Amino acid sequence: MFFDTHAHLDLPPLSDAEEAVVRRARDAGVTRIATVGIDPESGERAVSIAHRHTGVYAVVGLHPHDAGRLSDTLLARLEALSRCDKVVAIGETGLDFHRDRAPRDSQRAAFREQIRLARRRGLPVVVHDRDAHDEVLSILSEENAAEVGGIIHCFSGDLAMARTALAMNFLISIPGAITYKGSEVQVAAVRGLPLDRLLIETDCPFLAPVPHRGKPNEPSYVPLVAAKIAEVHGVTVEDVARTTTINALRLFRIPVEEEVRVTYRIRGSLYLNITNRCTNACTFCPKRHDYHVKGHLLKLSGEPTAAEALAEIGDPTKFDEIVFCGFGEPLLRLDELKRIAAELKARGARVRVNTDGLGNLVHGRNILPELAGLVDALSVSLNAPDAESYARICLNRYGASSFAALLDFLREAPRHVPMVSATAVALPGLDAEAVRRLAESIPGVTFRLRAYDDLG
Question: What's the whole-number average pLDDT of the chain?
Fold first, then answer.
């Protein structure tokens, strides 16, 4: 389901039809909304609205347009409001050098004070930024806003700005303007950012997405924003909805009961997460700090049996392919993998295995003939052009023999599996072209470069 992370339900015309607006949102699959105050009075209305509706939360702050109202009394009101149980962030605050409705020094002072309030309260910051990109980032850095993180709301910057914000623990929130002509810079930023660092919003009643542009916006339109992001990223709307919702829940510190996934769907593929054990401890592995992939939690409490995995898969022909790929090395469970794959093939499925290519080394024999007829495709993580680089990137107990064994696996694989691809993660400093040349020098092996920071 969708989470509209920035709405103004207290503003007309939405406030005139609050119940209907929330009902239409739920009918559209938008089950969570953050309604954002722009001053203490608006914040009080936001808190009241949040208390009237399940799944609606409040954000309280002072908009830069009203920064001239800043006072100790006003800040005390905001702090009191921030203690309400459904308040999840401080904002929107920031800088607006486009309209300049408040003196810039007042805007800067109000921005800094609200970051300090957010840090005192342990709440994220919702940032308004218009024609003030560099100064917004400077103030966030100077005030140590990374301590609590937050959102660059209604993002209007470029990819470089977004990456700087991500490094400071801020997520990038995309509004309906992404659907407008002239939004190429923001589209390029979305394309270059991992989905697990994005949020979606309406900023309603403003910025209605196409085809509603020019009309009052409302939360029920946020799926149109998700659809544009899905198009840019080459994923499904469901992938965007699930991932951005989890992103928002975690940022806002909203408790959520998540089901650990043995099977998980991305695009038209169904993935099998049958182990969290791995041969390698790769330096880039995201499970060092998180077990989520596109909104799916993959931290297993135990390894599923073949029967349990097959029961969860159901009819495999509903999917383009079934992929053995979770947060672990599937060939460590070779016997279970073969049993599952045999049943999947009998049911008409296409089967792919993502592997580190060290299966022969682990099992002490050539296991590739055992995969013949069971596996249609292998994706093998090569990740380096030479043994020295591989040992530095992909640490394991086998040491220097690992890379040679990996290359032997790749050379042998096309004899038993119809499609074999070597992959590499686009790590900073990696000579990706050297890895490509090495992979493509092996008969029957293709090459694919994977994004460094975007799983799935």
Answer: 96
